[in-house]
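As described in the Methods, two query proteins were run sequentially through the folding procedure within a single session, without resetting any intermediate state between them. The first query and its resulting C-alpha cells are shown here.
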Amino acid sequence: MSLPVIHELDSDKVRSIKEIAYGLIECWNAMDFHRAYTTYYAEDAVKCEPTAIGDFPNEIQGLENLIAQEDSIQQELMETHQIQVAEGPFIGANGFSVIIKSDFTHGATNTRHIFREVGIFTIADGKVVREEYQFDEAEYQLATVLAAEHAE
C-alpha cells in the first residue's frame, strides 16, 4: 500500500530554492554578507529578528536597510570568529531553513557570544523575500555568562 501524495513539489522551483540556499551558505561561510544580499535578495526583502539590534527594529524592510544593518553590526563587533551553517539546508516548498552557529566578540562589552539560531528563508521569483531568525534565549544568555566568566 502506498501513501497518498498530499501535494507535488515543482521540481524546478525546488531546484531554484536549493541553488539559492547553497549559494547563500557559501557566502555566509565566507562571511561575504554583501554578496549574499546583492545576489540573492529581493529589493523589498524583509528581515525579522527576535529582538531589536542596535538602532534597528526587530523587523526591517528593503535591501538597502538590510545592508545598512549588516554594516552596523559588523562595526559593533570587535571580532567575528565564525559564522557557519551547522545544519541544513532543509528545503521546503517555498523556501528553506538552516541552523547557524555564530561566534563573535561584541566590541562595546568585549563579551564573546557563541550560540545557534535557526534561519528561515522564504523565496519568491528566485529571490529571498523574507528571512526570520529564532534562537533559544536561554542558550544565548548562558553563552554570554560563560564568556564573561572565561574573560575573568
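Immediately afterward, the second query was submitted; its sequence and C-alpha cells are:
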Amino acid sequence: MARNFLIFAAAILLGAVALRADVVVLADGTELDAVTVIAKPDSYWLKLTNGQTRTIPRSQVKEVRKGTPAAPKPPTNVSAKPVTPPPAAAGVSEGFKYIKSRADKVEAPISAVAMWEKWLEANPQSADVESARVELEK
C-alpha cells in the first residue's frame, strides 16, 4: 500500500515537472509559452501551451528560457490620455446594458471588440450607437 502511494506521488511530481512551460523570447520582446521547444539548424519548432504549433527562424529568437513563464510585466507604453466615460447609463437600452456587462468581463479584448461590432451591426438605428462606439474605442 505504501509502495503504491509512493509510486503515485512520484508520478504526480514528474507530471508537474512535465507541465512546466518554456518561454521563447523573440527579438521584438514577445514571449511565447511553449510546452515543447525543438531546436533545428535554422529554426525552432514550438508547441505552445494553447495547443498551436509554430516554427520560428533562429534569427527572430532572442532567448529560450527553461521552466515556468516569468510573471507578467506591466505595460510600458501606457497612455497618459484621460479616459472619457461613456454617456450616463440612465437612458440606455437593456440590450446595450447586457452587451456592456458581458464585454466588461471578457479576458481577451478582441472578444469585446467582436461583441460591440456585432451589436452595432444589429442596432444601427439605436439611440445607444454613440455610447457603443465609445465602448468599442476603449
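The mean pLDDT is 75. We note this only descriptively and draw no conclusion about the first query from it.
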